[in-house]
Structures are given as C-alpha cells and as structure tokens.
Specification:
With 323 residues, this protein is of the alpha/beta class. It has two domains: 3-168 and 209-235, 3-Layer(aba) Sandwich (Rossmann fold), CATH 3.40.50.720; 172-208 and 240-285 and 300-315, Alpha-Beta Complex (UDP-galactose 4-epimerase, domain 1). Helix content is 38%, strand content 17%. It has ten helices and 13 strands. It has helices at 12-21, 55-62, 85-100, 137-154, 182-192, 212-224, 226-229, 244-259, 288-294, 302-322, and strands spanning 3-7, 27-32, 44-49, 67-70, 108-114, 159-165, 167-169, 197-200, 206-207, 209-211, 233-235, 242-243, 266-269. The strands form four sheets. A seven-stranded parallel beta sheet has the order 3-2-1-4-5-6-11, with helices on both faces. Helix 1 (12-21) crosses helix 6 (212-224) and helix 2 (55-62) crosses helix 3 (85-100). This is NAD-dependent epimerase/dehydratase. One of its GO terms (cellular component) is cytoplasm. One of its GO terms (molecular function) is aldehyde dehydrogenase (NAD+) activity.
Length: 323
C-alpha cells in the first residue's frame, strides 16, 4: 500500500483532505502540530503530533512517504503572515533537502498555493497563465515556496504539484476546530449573533467560492494524476464568480430559516482606508486545464454549501450551550 502523508491534517482544508483519503486503502499519516483524533476509514491511519519547523521532526514525519500533501499555514492567516516565513517557505525548503538524498522514486508533493499569488487580477477569468505580482507578504511567501517546489521537480528531487486555491468555505468536521473559516463562516457567525452583515463597497464584487469538500477532492484528484500535473501550478475554482452581496443575503436567509428569527440586515458601507486594492477586484477562475487532466469538478452548489455551513455552526453552538 502507498503511504500518503498529510501535513497540517487538523486544519480546515487538511482535515477535509485527510477525511477523503481515509476512505482509500492506503497508509495515511496525518500530521498536525497538536494531538488530534484522525478520521476513520479504510486506510491504516497514524496520527502524528509534530512541530514541523524542527527539521528532525519533519524528517521523521515524512519518512517513507510515497506522496505528501503540504497544507501548512503560518500563524496569523493570510493577512498577517509577516512572521510566518518559517512555516510558509522554510518547511518546504527543509523538506526538499531532506528527501533530495533519498533512495527510490521521488515522492509526489501536492502543495496548497493560492490564486491570490497573482496579485491584483489583471483580467477575468484567471487561468494560470498570468504573470505573478504578489501584493501581500503571504502571497510573496506562497509564490516563493511554489518556485522552490518547481525547481526541485525540475531537478528530479520530487514530483511537485501546486494547486492554487480559491476562496474556500464550508463546515469542518475536525475535532475542536472553530468555524471562523473565511468570509462565509464569519458572516454566518455574525448572523447567528443577530448582528448586521456589512459589505465594503456596493456588494457587486465577485469571488470564486468553492466548498472545502470539493477542494479536498481536487487534492485527491491531483494525487491520482501526478505524471500529468508535476512541475506546474493549477488553478482550482468553480468558475461562477458569486457577488458578495448576494452571498451575504443568502447567509442571512439561511440563518433565519435555521433559527426562526427574522433575517439580519445586509448593508453596504464605506471601506476602511487600509483596505487593499485586491478586496475590490472581482475574481473568477477558469480551472479548465486541471479539469481536463483529472476530470475534477465541484459538486456542491453555493446554496447547498451555505446551508451546510450554517447548519454546522448552529449545531456546534447549541452543543456547547447544552454542555
């Protein structure tokens, strides 16, 4: 059986990827910074708690892996990554050096990049051929890590695949995880608290929203087609371009139906002076190249994904109240 290691297996995307891989007859090594309960399934699953910024711990965690899914995210999230270079870049650099001297075929590495690496979108839709002009520290670091992976692939050390991810939303089944995962979950929590949902600008800015389970299936699809994908970066998206104003109103309506209360107000406000230009540029994604190779396509619609996100959040909050 193949050994597949997921780095960051307790995170939002990582837990969904681990859950999908657990259904397969493989050896699954689920690695996270803290101890956690991995998903059950057909796989032979081992949970590993490790600080992967420690080179020895990293080497132990990935030893003997046929494939590695790299889903680490430096503390501070995508807007506060100035101090996270060690996680966002350094771990991948160490990993390449560790596996570079190994015997046997080079391992497959599927790396979580971001569509925001392009910077201010030069056009719609993005298809992956645009030049990159990253505008935030996070995007600079993600691009640097991706370039390290491409060079290591060209040098024959790994078979690297970068999936540039869109705006991800959805519920999480990870034990102890919070539900503040992106704009949809943030608005759902505000609606649950009875607070108005405010939109910067006029609400017509579009985002390409993909449910976390569909993102997880993109990672498993990449693992199934390494020879065709290795050495490149591939954009993942639904191709819809959902207006944020409509998304927020859908969240308010869905929360109302779950709680029996009137929908909270959705209003437009002037953006703060520090808001980056990328917040006001619409993004849709053409993932045709990736779909053509793998057959992947998102299956969860926006209304269904919002319904599931709201249901999971309300259930989690009610569970905490009862305990």
């Amino acid at each position: 059986m193949k050994t597949i290691t997921v780095l960051g297996a307790s995170g939002f995307v990582g837990s969904a990827v681990a859950r999908a891989l657990a259904r397969r007859p493989i050896r699954l090594r689920a690695v996270a910074r803290r101890r956690f309960t991995p998903p059950a399934g057909r796989a032979e699953i081992t949970a590993v708690a490790a600080d992967l910024t420690d080179r020895a711990s990293l080497a132990s965690a990935v030893a003997g892996s046929d494939a590695v899914v790299h889903l680490l995210l430096g503390d501070g999230g995508w807007r506060g990554a100035e101090g996270a270079e060690r996680v966002n870049v350094g771990v991948l650099r160490d990993f390449v050096e560790i596996v570079g001297g190994g015997d046997g075929p080079p391992p497959v590495v599927v790396f979580a990049g971001s569509t925001s690496q392009v910077g201010v979108p030069p056009r719609e839709p993005l298809d992956g051929t645009e030049p990159d002009h990253p505008a935030t520290p996070y995007d600079v670091q993600k691009l640097e890590a991706e370039q390290l992976l491409k060079k290591a692939t060209a040098d024959g050390l790994v078979r690297g695949i970068s999936l540039r991810l869109p705006t991800i939303f959805g519920e999480t089944a990870a034990e102890g995880a919070n539900h503040d995962r992106g704009v949809v979950s943030t608005m759902a929590r505000r609606a649950l608290e009875g607070l108005p949902l405010t939109i910067w600008g006029d609400g017509t800015v579009r985002r390409d929203l993909v449910h976390v389970d569909d993102v997880a299936s993109a990672f498993t699809a990449a693992l199934d087609h390494p020879d065709s994908l290795a050495g490149g970066h591939w954009l993942i998206g639904a191709g819809r371009g959902d207006q944020l104003g409509e998304v927020f109103r859908l969240v308010a309506k869905e929360m109302s139906e779950h709680t029996g209360k009137s929908p909270v107000e959705v209003s437009c406000v002037e953006p703060p002076s520090h808001a980056p230009e990328t917040d006001f540029r619409s993004i849709t994604i053409d993932s045709t190249p990736f779909r053509a190779v793998t057959g992947w396509h998102p299956e969860i619609s926006l209304p269904e994904g919002v319904r599931r996100t709201v249901a999971a959040l309300t259930s989690s909050v009610q569970g905490r109240v009862h305990t």
